[in-house]
Automatic annotation (TrEMBL), chains A, B:
It comes from Paenactinomyces guangxiensis. Residues 19-179 form the MOSC domain. GO terms for molecular function: catalytic activity; molybdenum ion binding; pyridoxal phosphate binding. InterPro entries: MoCF_Sase_C (IPR005302), MOSC_domain (IPR052716), Pyrv_Knase-like_insert_dom_sf (IPR011037). This is MOSC domain-containing protein.
Length: 188, 188
């Protein structure tokens, strides 16, 4: 199994009741269900437009507990949008990793392991949506087209969502070991 | 997204305290965590030899809630072992499906949807291990080699494990709609 090493450049939480935008914190604890106090925390959540196979509002298992972005992919998107930088806060990220230039294509079932013993399981690619585009546009008032341009620019670079497999602490500066699920061996 | 239709040929439960072998029941209910009363039921479970990245016994999220087998793959394995039939009971299956000849290679993240509204998410291929081989061997006392032959014969045909995404009833005879995760579109 292929292993990648990455570092935690930022730990973030969405704990403001009115926005998905996150803010940096030095450390936090992953619990079953995500980060307590974060708006995506919960073992279950109501189905929304992302799960059209269930009636809207149905209580379903929450596979979108933790959002992880790649610093390299954020730089790429910023370049495409011709803006100075793309902050992970604007995209609602909980973790910003450096060292995985193609994080978004990480296979489902891959594990992210932290020095504390905590572990996440990748549940796949996140969807670019217009909400972060609006935030980015508000930061660049002379660029009204950024809302929709973001979706195109962030395609396949929007990071991944994960579930917490093993609770534990995560800190800025942590080294993360990523066990890539290569599908060659049966999932364990 | 590719869709496959299959039928539920059997619903089974492992509710005997001393064995993983399952028994047929006409119907049951999927809850968050699996099938209540089944030995694999639980939102969490202790890490074992299948998760060597965590110390044995660590409480981790349970991704092996429901075990699903393909009737066609069971027939294939039986043929390779030169036995009359391979019962899903012996392999500890919770569901036996007909209509998916290559169920074991179903991609992680694929969904199994039931008429009741219940939904499972495929968490990947199950591992052939020697435990079912022992059960099969006990049923064929003149074939001591079956214990180890099973592992080889069942390679890549051992079915999948799933987590319950949406609770609901499942009945023998149900038609199941499988939404294959083709990785072409972002995971929703």
């Amino acid at each position: 199994m292929k292993t990648i090493e990455a570092s935690v450049e930022a730990v973030l939480i969405a704990d403001h009741p009115e926005t998905f935008v996150t803010r940096r914190i030095p450390e936090t604890r992953f619990e079953f269900g995500g980060i307590p106090g974060d708006r995506h925390f919960g073992i279950t959540r109501p189905a929304d437009s992302r799960q059209p196979m269930y009636p809207r509002g149905t209580e379903i298992f929450n596979r979108r507990q933790i959002t992880v972005l790649s610093a390299e992919e954020c730089m790429d998107i910023a370049e495409k949008l011709q803006i100075d930088s793309l902050l992970p806060e604007w995209l609602g990220a909980n973790l910003l990793l450096r060292g995985v230039p193609d994080l978004t294509s990480l296979t489902i079932g891959s594990r992210l392991l932290f020095p504390s013993g905590a572990g996440l399981v990748c549940q796949g690619e996140n969807l670019p949506c217009t909400l972060p585009g609006k935030v980015i546009q508000e930061m660049h008032t002379n660029r009204p087209e950024l809302t929709t341009e973001f979706v195109r620019a962030a395609f396949k670079q929007r990071g991944i969502v994960c579930l917490v497999e093993c609770p534990g602490q995560v800190r800025q500066g942590d080294l993360v070991r990523i066990l890539v699920n290569d599908f060659a061996k049966p999932l364990q």
